[in-house]
């Protein structure tokens, strides 16, 4: 249990491994996950290390596996995941794995290339089929009709026809020779039927408008374009995208226009196909195309079946292959951190290990040696060092999330008090003070409980959704926050802004009905017979939920005071935690000149204010006689301010100023003693350090034992290692900053806990507004229509409740609780200047999908 409150004791060890046993031993240590190796070759380039070739082979195998994984996901084939982690293969098995992956990759690439070629051929035949079908209507018309008929064309097409007629009837011989060639000169006579050339092809539909404009401008309007859309999209064989295309045919006259048209088609990546002019030839070609398409469909189906079989077989072992390759790669990465002795037969490593696990590690090394068949046992020697060891806090699936909250602020210094065990209780409780609502807490608790019950299945999904992973990782925190919120919700007697009347209200209305309904400012007085005089058995009396004018006033006073009480107790607990640090590190100076004055300062001022609250609650009641009625109860805030300013409180309405005998005297003594603690915190430790150094210089010998720790240790305790002496000026400055921060922080931190009161009131008021402004609209409707309206309104109210009051308000309360722990609580004792223990662990490597060698800077 000691490691729960402090990090594990660590030891720096030297490890000697025989070369033939090194791989198996490191494999066993990776399965164990309790050793953090140090890099003994920091100046050696990664490409010059001993096992760089093996790492490259593993990288190549990973590349092939990622290619297989990509193809498997593309076909939507499920990959088998048994949840088991196979052992790292032996080095000789790498050759078999490489051969298997090479065969699969080559086979799959060959299948893909064949499939792509077949799909490209299928696309060409499909486009040719559409050309032969779509252009049939163009060839059904005779050439003169194409020139002269304008009844079935648009205005723009008519202009094209007229342009052709003008070209045929009115151009001179030079223009015709230039645009049409020699054949144009012979076709100069008006009305003569001209022989037109044409090209047919397919183009992407989105390029068609620009293609048409370019043809018109480049050919000066001397070409005639007809186009028809292909209704169904065609698959691009390169990337598998669905592309919409159109068939076009271009009529022209002369070789010069033919050349120009083909160049434009090439520029727009339009595909041209041969298209016979004779109908019989087109029909014969269409029949041949259909036959070839049917044959291609058969071959494509067989190719896809073969590809599917290959991928299904690979999918069964892909997860295990990934695990094996990553384990091999991690082992060789780790071996590259080792040193090779001069005999080339032994590898030397240095590693951090938990002191309690040395025997377990030695057993793992023994197993690795036996697996490798080596006859020389490994040697594990403990080394002496002045370095600060890494911080290792053992966690389980329950404490892991709470430890992550602490480590997000800063990893604890070595053997420093760990706040995580206490945070398990204080974090959800302070959250619940702000989020207290039985209904909202139940929603949060049920969500957390669902994730806990289904954690194995949810963890196996391994989604990349970062938000979901955060929720799932903090499932136990969410569950506890919900449970604690249900408890505080019962204390507040608040469920969706309403109350539970379990025990019956202790207030009774003695007025008649007309008085209650007509007098909106009527209040029930506890001094009259309307109140039974006994408190509600558990939590608040439900009558406060229907109080209109003084509900917020009462809740303000109640929640403000409990916020201060919890805050002061939380801070005092933090200061007491620093005592454990000082005593563990034997830091006597910090214990005497920091812990004691800090605790006295906090208790005499702020804890005394808390005691005044309890005295006031106990002594002043509405049923008491003068001078202990509620009207004579003094203000705690005014009393505290007057106390700090050495000012005598003023009486009002002949009421006594003080709550107990000798209050003025005790308050004066408390303030004087508290103020006297400030110079002790400011100067006590630096002066003692200065005296110790002066004495050491006079005796011309080093200060040993506990004095060395006193001189060199940090204010709140350090790792107890070797420290260089600080300049005295720096010590005085550091101590001054620390003292000012604590004194002013005691005031600001106490006020900071008022966020518990503010957010609690805001949450309750927002819930009440949501009920009155949304759900009440449906509750006020009657009849069948009212039922339908209520269903719709309830759905809207439920969405707003979950979205705003549970998610948004819950996140806000979570962040405020986190701040209270990081700043107000942990600043009293927690340095957080260590570095985390990063063991070489296969589990972490597989979980992160990468390589983790445990190397530290």
Brief digest:
The chain is of the alpha+beta class and 857 residues long.
Name some characteristics of this structure.
single chain, 857 residues, alpha+beta, Alpha-Beta Plaits, 5-stranded antiparallel β-sheet, 4-stranded antiparallel β-sheet, 11 strands, flat, disordered C terminus
Write the layout of secondary structure elements.
Elements: H1 2-5, E1 10-18, H2 19-32, E2 36-37, H3 52-74, H4 93-134, H5 136-139, H6 143-148, H7 155-170, H8 173-180, H9 182-186, E3 197-204, H10 208-218, E4 224-229, E5 234-235, E6 242-243, E7 245-252, H11 255-267, E8 271-273, H12 279-315, H13 318-335, E9 339-340, E10 346-354, H14 358-372, E11 379-383, H15 399-409, H16 420-435, H17 438-453, H18 455-461, H19 466-473, H20 475-492, H21 513-518, H22 551-584, H23 588-619, H24 636-644, H25 663-699, H26 706-712, H27 728-752, H28 755-779, H29 783-825, H30 842-848
Helix pairs in contact: 2-13, 2-14, 3-4, 3-12, 3-13, 4-12, 10-11, 15-16, 16-20, 16-28, 16-29, 17-20, 17-29, 22-23, 22-27, 22-28, 23-25, 23-27, 25-27, 28-29
């Amino acid at each position: 249990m000691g490691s729960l409150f402090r990090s594990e004791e660590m030891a720096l060890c030297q490890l000697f491994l025989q070369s033939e046993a090194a791989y198996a031993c490191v494999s066993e240590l990776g399965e164990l996950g309790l050793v953090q190796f140090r890099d003994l070759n920091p100046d050696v380039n990664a490409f010059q290390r001993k096992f760089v070739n093996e790492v490259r082979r593993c990288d190549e195998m990973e590349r092939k596996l990622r290619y297989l994984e990509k193809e498997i996901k593309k076909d939507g084939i499920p990959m088998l995941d048994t949840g088991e982690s196979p052992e790292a293969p032996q080095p000789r098995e790498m050759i078999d794995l490489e051969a298997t992956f090479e065969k699969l990759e080559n086979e799959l690439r060959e299948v893909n290339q064949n499939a792509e070629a077949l799909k490209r051929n299928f696309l060409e035949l499909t486009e040719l089929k559409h050309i032969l079908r779509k252009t049939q209507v163009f060839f059904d018309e005779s050439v003169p009709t194409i020139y002269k008929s304008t009844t079935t064309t648009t205005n723009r097409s008519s202009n094209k026809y007229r342009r052709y007629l003008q070209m045929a009837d009115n151009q001179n011989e030079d223009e015709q020779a230039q645009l049409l060639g020699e054949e144009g000169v012979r076709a100069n006579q008006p009305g003569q039927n001209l022989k037109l050339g044409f090209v047919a092809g397919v183009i992407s539909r989105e390029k068609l408008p620009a293609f048409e404009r370019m043809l018109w401008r480049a050919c000066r309007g001397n070409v005639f374009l007809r186009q028809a859309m292909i209704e169904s999209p065609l698959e691009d064989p390169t990337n598998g995208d669905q592309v919409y295309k159109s068939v076009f045919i271009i009529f022209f006259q002369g070789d010069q226009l033919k050349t120009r048209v083909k160049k434009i088609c090439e520029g727009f990546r339009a595909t041209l196909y041969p298209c016979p002019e004779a109908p019989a030839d087109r029909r014969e070609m269409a029949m041949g195309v259909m036959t070839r398409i049917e044959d291609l469909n058969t071959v494509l189906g067989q190719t896809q079946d073969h590809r599917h079989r290959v991928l299904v077989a690979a999918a069964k072992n892909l997860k295990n292959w990934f695990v094996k390759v990553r384990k091999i790669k991690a082992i060789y990465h780790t071996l590259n951190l080792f040193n090779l002795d001069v005999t080339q037969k032994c590898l030397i490593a240095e590693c951090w290990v938990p002191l309690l696990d040395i025997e377990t590690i030695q057993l793992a090394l023994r197993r690795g040696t036996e697996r490798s068949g080596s006859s020389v046992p490994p040697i594990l020697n403990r080394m002496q060092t002045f370095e600060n060891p890494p911080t290792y806090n053992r966690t389980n699936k329950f404490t892991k999330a709470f430890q992550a909250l602490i480590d997000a602020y800063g990893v604890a210094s070595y053997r420093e008090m760990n706040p995580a065990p206490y945070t398990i209780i204080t974090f959800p409780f302070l959250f619940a003070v702000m989020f207290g609502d039985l209904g909202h807490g139940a929603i949060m608790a049920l969500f957390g409980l669902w994730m806990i019950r289904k954690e194995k299945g949810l963890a196996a999904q391994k989604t990349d959704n970062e938000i979901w992973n955060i929720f799932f990782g903090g499932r136990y925190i969410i569950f506890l926050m919900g449970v604690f919120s249900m408890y505080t919700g019962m204390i507040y007697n608040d469920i969706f802004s309403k109350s539970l009347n379990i025990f019956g209200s202790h207030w009774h209305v003695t007025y008649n009905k007309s008085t209650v309904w007509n007098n909106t400012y009527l209040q029930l007085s506890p001094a009259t017979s309307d109140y039974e005089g006994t408190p509600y058995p558990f939590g608040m009396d439900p009558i406060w939920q229907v109080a209109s004018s003084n509900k917020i006033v009462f809740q303000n006073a109640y929640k403000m005071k409990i916020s201060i009480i919890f805050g002061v107790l939380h801070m005092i607990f933090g200061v007491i935690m620093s005592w454990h640090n000082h005593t563990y590190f034997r830091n006597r100076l910090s214990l005497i000149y920091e812990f004691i004055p800090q605790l006295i300062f906090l208790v005499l001022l702020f804890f005394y204010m808390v005691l005044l609250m309890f005295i006031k609650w106990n002594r002043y009641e509405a049923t008491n006689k003068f001078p202990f009625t509620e009207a004579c109860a003094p203000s705690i805030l005014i009393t505290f301010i007057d106390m700090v300013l050495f000012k005598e409180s003023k009486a009002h309405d002949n009421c006594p100023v003080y709550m107990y005998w000798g209050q003025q005297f005790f308050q004066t003594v408390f303030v004087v003693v508290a103020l006297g603690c400030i110079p002790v915190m400011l100067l006590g430790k630096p002066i003692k350090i200065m005296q110790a150094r002066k004495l050491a210089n006079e005796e011309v010998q080093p200060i040993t034992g506990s004095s060395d720790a006193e001189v060199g240790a940090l204010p709140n305790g350090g790792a107890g290692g070797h420290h260089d002496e600080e300049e005295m000026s720096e010590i005085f400055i550091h101590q001054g900053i620390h003292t000012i921060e604590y004194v002013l922080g005691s005031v600001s931190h106490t006020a900071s806990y008022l966020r518990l009161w503010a957010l609690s009131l805001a949450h309750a008021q927002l819930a009440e507004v949501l009920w009155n402004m949304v759900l009440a609209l449906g509750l006020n409707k009657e009849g069948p229509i009212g039922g339908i309206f209520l269903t719709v309104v309830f759905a809207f109210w439920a969405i707003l409740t979950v979205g705003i009051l549970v998610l948004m308000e819950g996140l806000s309360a979570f962040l405020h609780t986190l701040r209270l722990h990081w700043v107000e609580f942990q600043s009293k004792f927690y340095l957080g200047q260590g570095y985390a223990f990063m063991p070489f662990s296969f589990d972490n490597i597989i979980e992160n999908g990468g390589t983790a060698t445990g190397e530290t800077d």
